[in-house]
């Protein structure tokens, strides 16, 4: 019966890998895979470059970096280089207008003449001046200034509040200067903290070969202890409330969730849940202890692999640089596209009801370089209005931005896929080296990098495109949810939440499938679909081992991140807050305006460093695990088909390699 059941499982998830006498690790003789996807990806990248060139030709990022006066001239540039600030003739027109801040494309535009602060010419002077302070290149009045009497404005409080709002929202100069000063004072100590994080991460991974077993045991016992304490605490709360007679029937239904803490049924339900979790974990330890031992042995083997190929620990720097290039290119392209268009000028008058202005076509196009001949309308000017949305490029800006977003997601996912495939190739060469370290290639990381780029760019692009489409769908769904949030009924919100949950699960599954597919690509050199299928079938034939290894690895890496980030955070707090006594003059903490700023920077940097190191280690564990499963299926320990796994794994599994005849004679 058991044999029949195994045969049915083989049919459902494929048959075990057959022995191949020519297989000795990652395939050397390869051919290009997913060529069509490779061509499409390269054509897309070429189009992405064309979009960037078009954006560079037609865009002008100065529109968001520098203010412009009423004639469209930039302040602080060209002939106005020594005039960096913009002055509004009537700032209260900005305060009382419906659209106070519009800096996305046209800058802060107000229905009032604007001029360079030192440029005061006849008929171009403001009717009043107020003490001002610069903010984002513009002059805004002080909040304690008493404004002059203006027609149509009777409430000074409104003006004061408007000025205060502008100052609070725009004038961040003092804070930014203080932040800059803090970074200037503490940057080298931040680098020291990041160096400590790097050393801790590396030591943690390298020492796992010695302490992986005891550490996993301590962590599991710690989880059991926490659950046991939770059960005890819930029981005490339940007993006290039971003696008081506090029941949910007395409380009834309420939206105040904190009220349920005062009823006995809440603590009884929590007690039952924690008790079930405790029982499940104990059963797992009892019945899956062998698989936990295998997981620990694989973690030790991964630590050895990293120790043999230390260059792999610094590959995340390559990934980081490539990701930074992709993000910077997209950001610059998006900025240039958003600022494309020719400046538009219209006729404007301060008082269109004045005699002589009735026949003037206000708000019609004009030429700022031409002299206005209509002198009967006082204050008539040709002022800058905005940027034209006409023309082929301007009409296509939205579509080009969508193309750019798709390019951002696709290139980012491709870079991440490249890193996974390269690391998988390097670590696979370690596992399939029968005599370690003699049989390990000289430059495994470089060889894997060249091989991946040469043969498997299309496969990586295929997997990255699938993931990109799912992520774009999630972004669209989030956008729709945000726009319709105020008008949805509960049923619609429930449906939207279900869709978002399904897409989230789909994205997680695709990431998992892609990751293992890239490992199979690095080993066998087959296309994406075949590699994904083989990886999925292999994992499904060993699903229990997959779950155990995944959870043990997650627990261990979580503890490692907690150790690195927590250690750096505590050290940074005591150092930058000046709470470490006895430091010499050379190690005295700097005087800072905001001591929490370098602390948070150190913690964030430590998390990034730890995540980079542990991502390499996680990829190593996953690669060795797939190789281990393949090793079990294709080999049997005979002289012709020896196992490639370590002696510790052979011992745990109760297997061994058959010794050569000459070795047997020596033993006798």
UniProtKB/TrEMBL annotation:
Pfam families: Choline_transpo. It catalyses: choline(out) + n H(+)(in) = choline(in) + n H(+)(out); thiamine diphosphate(out) = thiamine diphosphate(in). The keyword Transport applies. The chain crosses the membrane at residues 35-58, 187-208, 215-235, 267-288, 314-338, 414-434, 455-477, 517-540, 552-576, 596-629. The keyword Transmembrane helix applies. It is found in: Apical cell membrane; Cell membrane; Membrane. Keywords: Antiport, Cell membrane, Glycoprotein, Membrane, Transmembrane, Transmembrane helix, Transport. GO terms for biological process: phosphatidylcholine biosynthetic process. Choline transporter that plays a role in the choline-acetylcholine system and is required to the efferent innervation of hair cells in the olivocochlear bundle for the maintenance of physiological function of outer hair cells and the protection of hair cells from acoustic injury. Also described as a thiamine pyrophosphate transporter in colon, may mediate the absorption of microbiota-generated thiamine pyrophosphate and contribute to host thiamine (vitamin B1) homeostasis. This is Choline transporter-like protein. It comes from Pan troglodytes.
């Amino acid at each position: 019966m058991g044999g029949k059941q195994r045969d049915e499982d083989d049919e459902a998830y494929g048959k075990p890998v057959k022995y191949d006498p020519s297989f000795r690790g990652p395939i050397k003789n390869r051919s290009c895979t997913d060529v069509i996807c490779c061509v499409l990806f390269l054509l897309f990248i070429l189009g992405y470059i064309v979009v960037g060139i078009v954006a560079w030709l037609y865009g002008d990022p100065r529109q968001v970096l520098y203010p412009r006066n009423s004639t469209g001239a930039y302040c602080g540039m060209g002939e106005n280089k020594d005039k960096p600030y913009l002055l509004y003739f009537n700032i209260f027109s900005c305060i009382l207008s419906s659209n106070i801040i519009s800096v996305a494309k046209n800058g802060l535009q107000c229905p009032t003449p604007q001029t360079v602060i030192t440029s005061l010419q006849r008929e171009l002077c403001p009717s009043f001046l107020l003490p001002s302070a610069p903010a984002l290149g513009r002059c805004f009045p002080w909040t304690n200034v008493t404004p002059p009497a203006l027609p149509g404005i009777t409430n000074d409080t409104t003006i004061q509040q408007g000025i205060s709002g502008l100052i609070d929202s725009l004038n961040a100069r003092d804070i930014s200067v203080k932040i800059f000063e803090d970074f200037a004072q503490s940057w080298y100590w931040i680098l020291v903290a990041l160096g400590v994080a790097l050393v801790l991460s590396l030591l943690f991974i390298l020492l796992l070969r010695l302490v992986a077993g005891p550490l996993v045991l301590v962590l599991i016992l710690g989880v059991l202890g926490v659950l046991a304490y939770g059960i005890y605490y819930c029981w005490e709360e339940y007993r006290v409330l039971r003696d008081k007679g506090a029941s949910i029937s007395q409380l009834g239904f309420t939206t105040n969730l904190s009220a349920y803490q005062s009823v006995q049924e809440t603590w009884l339900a929590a007690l039952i849940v924690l008790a079930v979790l405790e029982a499940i974990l104990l059963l797992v330890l009892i019945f899956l202890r062998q698989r936990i031992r295998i997981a620990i042995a694989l973690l030790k083997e991964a630590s050895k692999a990293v120790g043999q190929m230390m260059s792999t620990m610094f590959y995340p720097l390559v990934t980081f640089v490539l990701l930074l290039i992709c993000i910077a290119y997209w950001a610059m392209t998006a900025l240039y596209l958003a600022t494309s268009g020719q400046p538009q000028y219209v006729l404007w008058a301060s008082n269109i009801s004045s005699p002589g202005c009735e026949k003037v076509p206000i708000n019609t196009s004009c030429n700022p370089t031409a002299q206005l001949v209509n002198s009967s309308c006082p204050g008539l000017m040709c002022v800058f209005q905005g940027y034209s949305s006409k023309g082929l490029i301007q009409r296509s800006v939205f579509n080009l931005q969508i193309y750019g977003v798709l390019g951002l997601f696709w290139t980012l996912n491709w870079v991440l896929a490249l890193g996974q495939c390269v690391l998988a190739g390097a670590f696979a060469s370690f596992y399939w080296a029968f005599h370690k370290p003699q049989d390990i290639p000289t430059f495994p990381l470089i060889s894997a990098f060249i091989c991946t780029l040469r043969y498997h760019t299309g496969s990586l692009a295929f997997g990255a495109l699938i993931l990109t489409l799912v992520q774009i769908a999630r972004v669209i769904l989030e956008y729709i949810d945000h726009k319709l949030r105020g008008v949805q009924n509960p049923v619609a919100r429930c449906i939207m939440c279900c869709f978002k949950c399904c897409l989230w699960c789909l994205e997680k599954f695709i990431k998992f499938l892609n990751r293992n597919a890239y490992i199979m690509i690095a080993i066998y050199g087959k296309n994406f679909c075949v590699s994904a299928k083989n990886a999925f079938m292999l994992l499904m034939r060993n699903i229990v081992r997959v779950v155990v290894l995944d959870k043990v690895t997650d627990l261990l890496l979580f503890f490692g991140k907690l150790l690195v980030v927590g250690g750096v955070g505590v050290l940074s707090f005591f150092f930058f807050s000046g709470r470490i006594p006895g430091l010499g003059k050379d190690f005295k903490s700097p005087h800072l305006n905001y001591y929490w700023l370098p602390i948070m920077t150190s913690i964030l940097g430590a998390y990034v460093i730890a995540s980079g190191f542990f991502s390499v280690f996680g990829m190593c564990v996953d690669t060795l695990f797939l190789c281990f499963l393949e090793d079990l299926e294709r080999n049997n320990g005979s002289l012709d088909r020896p196992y490639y796994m370590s002696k510790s794994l052979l011992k745990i599994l109760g297997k061994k390699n058959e010794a050569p005849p000459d070795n047997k004679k020596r033993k006798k």
